[in-house]
Amino acid sequence: MGISTESDGRTPAFTVPAEGHARRVAALRRTIHRITDEVIDAGTFHHGAQTRRLEEALGRAWGGHAVATTSCTQALTLALRAAGVRAGDEVVVPAATFAATAFAVGAVGAVPVIVDVTEPTLTLCPKAMETAITPRTRAVIPVHLHGHMADMPAINEIAARHRLTVVEDCAQAPGARLDGRAAGTWGDYGCFSFWVGKNIGGIDDAGAVLTTTAERARALRRLTDMGRDRGDRHLHHVRGHRARLGEVNAGLLTAQLALLPSWTDRRNTIARRYTEAFASLPLETPVVQDGHVHAFYKYAIGCEDIPALTAHLASEGIEAEQVYPYLLPEQPAFREIEHRSLVSARSAAARQRLCLPAYPELTDAEDGHVIRAVTAFCAGG
Predict the structure, then answer these.
(1) Are 117 and 144 spatial neighbours (Cβ–Cβ below 8 Å)?
(2) What is the tens place of the pLDDT at every residue in 257-315?
(3) pTM, full prediction
């Protein structure tokens, strides 16, 4: 989608959506049709050649052993189960994340312990993590928010001293790296979302777990398919889940994995254009810390009046969004989920972020339009 020359007089002629996955899926239409035909011809719809190719490709691209599953929520739940986290245990999670991070903890009967994030990345604060550890703590889930990885060296050092399992929530970080190592390879488990709107995605929900050993991967595969080993559908070794990825999504993800580096470069190009253009404006822009490759799932800015900026952008045909306007302890669902909250006022900065369009399908004309609209707002016009 680019610049439209038509307008009904009530809506802007230039429409820039917040996310680009509808454009991506449309552009991949022929690939989707080809893969669908391949799956139909093969007559295998789960755990077939497409899934094997995806798992092998993920392992080659990022390292470790990959297990495909239906979502990052399932990936997190299965990783916690595989790690032996159970009822009564505690798992440290950051305040700024999608609710599924903590829901997965509750799903295995454990207690999410919600702690502060650190600026400027708004990722899990290592000091807050260590303060939260008790004799019941069994794991920690650092979240790579917006595509910038958490401080994994510090988190891993604390986890090693306290003998905690590290489960990375990489839902927003396919393509992110720290000191040359891919997101998902720093912890014991790395959990990815391949929902259609993520940096790579299927045509609905999808996910995967990376882990460090073949033995762990085998345990995860059993959990994804009702406790069975692939190839023996009648023997259930453990109480498993219905969490196997479909073959069409697996094939589509494999095709996109080859495109991810160029897509990540494009996201970073747009982010640099924004950051340079906004340098003199009264805005907080994302920081890319030394040693990091930012995946820029979102380009999130801080602004004193988010509602006003959102309305101004909408009047210019630009859709922007607050991804996490509520911290985890503020979610009504946690009234029915046992949890501990150690969140202080300093984590409120995570709520004051507005995400601008910054996806590979965005045209140069469109990101230029975003720059002009944001600049005009800050100038009061």
Answers:
(1) no
(2) 999 999 999 999 999 999 999 999 999 999 999 999 999 999 999 999 999 999 999 99
(3) 0.94
Q: Is residue 226 predicted with pLDDT exceeding 80? A: yes
Length of the chain: 381
